[in-house]
Design goal:
The N terminus is likely disordered. The radius of gyration is 18 Å and the shape is globular. A 4-stranded antiparallel beta sheet has the order 2-3-4-9. A 3-stranded antiparallel beta sheet has the order 6-7-8. The chain is of the alpha+beta class. The chain has a single domain, classed as Mannose-Binding Protein A, Chain A, CATH 3.10.100. 24% of the residues lie in helices and 22% in strands. InterPro entries: Lcl_C.
Length: 174
Amino acid sequence: MMKMTKLTALCAVGYVLLATQTPLLAAQECNSRSALPANGERFTSHSNGTVTDKQTQLMWKQCMEGQRGARCLGQAAILPWDRALQTAYTASQVNFAGHSDWRLPTVEELLSLVDKQCREPAINLRFFPATPASSLWSGNQSDPNAWSVDFSAGHPFQSFKAGGKYVRLVRNLH
């Protein structure tokens, strides 16, 4: 029988982590007085991979591009801004969830998802699971930059369009 050394065990764990291709997410930190129940009443999760925000009248893709299923499994795609625009076009062409008007959100729309009571990530994980504490592209641009929102704490900033960010698509309800 093979003797398992500490190094062999660490290599085996590393292989399993790589094989699953699931990002390791830091534990979310929320204020103990978090308004998650009230925030939860604001969102409606649908069985088609979308979440409706009753406050803003927006429908969001529950998962970021590259993730799948109700738990948003898999690796979210990190894309340059022009490829992020292309994913919105593609989602519209295939009528994701029966809709053909998917787009990149504005900075203000992304900021509406920020849960200020939480950080790492600053979002309601009940409705948007497996969201990393990282940046998502918006559709706002000012050449050669585009705006994004960092969901580690929920702050907007500009960066070069060639850089990579995550993508979550949105559409207006009406």
